[in-house]
Structure formats: structure tokens, C-alpha cells
């Protein structure tokens, strides 16, 4: 049994020295589970090490707290501490530089992953070529005077156009009747009276109802000619 006890003591001593912080038996048992040591064996090893002066301990009520002996460690002086701080600052800077470099590389990887593969580029090229060909065919038809509007769309547009010109003609007739009634016995010059009221005829603004009414007929003749 002695060799096993010494082995447990060596493992526990090494762990306590490496940690160099206050520990209780449960802390040590949890951390040394990989060695298959029972808590009772660890408690015995801790007590033996404490009794032999290899580790320090303090009692807080029923609980014992164990700690590595501090006299075995080299305590740096102020100059050494300053040097260590400087080295630590350098290492921290190097760590930040490495993190930044890793972040940049990860960003480049994401960009590369977001780019299209060769196969995707070829598929897109085929699709674009097809779209260009369709547009060129439409352009050829337009240059040749071929109308690309569907018959039902053309019919709906012509109907709406006819309704609008009919409204125009009706309002023009209503205005003429009212104007004739107002000016029939008026002593004023009709041109001056019209300017005074701010009235403008179609001809004053360069439009003609007749020319707009003739547009659908010209369009039908052109369609039959094609």
C-alpha cells in the first residue's frame, strides 16, 4: 500500500504547487479525477503533506484550506516585476496583432466563399447570353416597325384613349355653349374678355382635338400596311 500512498502524495503535491492558490480537498479531488484517486486517498495525501511541512494549511472551522509553500518560489524584485510587466505588454500586443491578422484572413475567406464558383459563373453567363439574345430580337422587331404590344393590351389602351378624347370633345362643346350664351349680348371685346378671365383655347397652347382623334385611325392604317 505504501507505493500507492507515495504516488498519490506526489500527484497531489505537484497539483497543489502548480495551482499555487488556496484549495480544499474537494477542489483537488475534482481536478484529479483522471488519476482515479478516491477522495479519501486525496484527503490522506493532503494531511500527510501538511503534517510533513511540504504544503501549508489553515483551518476555518471544520474545513481545511491547503496552499503551496511560498518559500519554495522565487519572488521577483521590483526591477524584475517591471521587466515582466513590459514583457507581458509586448505579448499582449502580439496577441492583438495575431487576432487582427486572423480576423483579416477570416474576412478574406468569407469574401472568397461569397464569390461565384467557375460553374456558377458559366451558368450565369449562359443565362445572360440568353437574355441579351431575347433583347436583341425585340430590338430587331422594333427597328422593323413591328408592334410588340399584345392585342388585348392594345384594345384596352385604344378604348381608354377613345373615352378620353370623347370627354375632351364633350367638355369642349359644353364650354362653347356656355361661352356663346355669356358673350351673346356682351359689349366687351371677346378677345380681351377671354384674356381677362384667363381662358385659353386648345389652339392657344398648340393642341388640336382633331389631330388626337385621328391618331387611332393612322395607327390602324399603319398596322394594316405592315
Automatic annotation (TrEMBL):
Location within or outside the cell: Nucleus
Residues annotated as domain Leucine zipper with capping helix: 149-206
Any Pfam family: WHD_TBPIP
Keywords: Coiled coil, DNA recombination, Meiosis, Nucleus
GO biological process, one term: homologous chromosome pairing at meiosis
GO cellular component: condensed nuclear chromosome; DNA recombinase auxiliary factor complex
Residue ranges of every copy of the Homologous-pairing protein 2 winged helix domain listed in the record: 8-68
InterPro entries: Hop2_WH_dom, LZ3wCH, WH-like_DNA-bd_sf
Gene3D superfamilies per record: Winged helix-like DNA-binding domain superfamily/Winged helix DNA-binding domain
Segments forming a coiled coil: 81-138
GO molecular function terms attached to this record: double-stranded DNA binding; recombinase activator activity
Family label: Belongs to the HOP2 family.
Protein name, entry field: Homologous-pairing protein 2 homolog
UniProt lineage: Eukaryota, Viridiplantae, Streptophyta, Embryophyta, Tracheophyta
Amino acid at each position: 500500500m505504501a507505493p500507492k500512498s507515495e504516488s498519490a502524495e506526489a500527484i497531489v503535491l505537484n497539483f497543489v504547487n502548480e495551482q499555487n492558490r488556496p484549495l480544499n480537498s474537494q477542489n483537488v479531488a475534482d481536478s484529479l479525477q483522471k488519476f482515479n484517486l478516491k477522495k479519501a486517498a486525496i484527503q490522506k495525501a493532503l494531511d500527510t503533506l501538511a503534517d510533513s511541512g511540504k504544503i501549508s494549511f489553515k483551518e476555518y472551522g471544520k474545513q481545511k484550506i491547503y496552499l503551496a509553500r511560498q518559500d519554495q518560489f522565487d519572488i521577483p524584485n521590483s526591477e524584475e516585476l517591471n521587466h515582466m510587466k513590459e514583457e507581458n505588454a509586448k505579448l499582449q500586443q502580439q496577441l492583438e496583432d495575431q487576432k487582427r491578422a486572423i480576423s483579416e484572413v477570416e474576412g478574406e475567406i468569407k469574401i472568397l466563399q461569397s464569390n461565384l464558383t467557375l460553374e456558377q459563373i458559366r451558368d450565369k453567363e449562359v443565362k445572360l447570353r440568353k437574355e441579351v439574345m431575347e433583347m436583341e430580337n425585340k430590338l430587331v422587331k422594333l427597328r422593323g416597325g413591328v408592334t410588340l404590344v399584345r392585342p388585348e393590351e392594345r384594345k384596352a389602351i385604344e378604348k381608354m384613349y377613345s373615352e378620353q378624347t370623347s370627354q375632351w370633345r364633350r367638355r369642349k362643346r359644353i364650354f362653347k355653349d356656355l361661352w356663346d350664351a355669356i358673350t351673346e349680348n356682351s359689349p366687351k371685346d371677346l378677345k380681351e374678355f377671354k384674356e381677362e378671365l384667363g381662358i385659353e383655347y386648345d389652339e392657344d397652347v398648340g393642341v388640336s382635338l382633331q389631330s388626337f382623334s385621328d391618331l387611332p385611325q393612322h395607327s390602324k392604317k399603319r398596322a394594316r400596311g405592315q
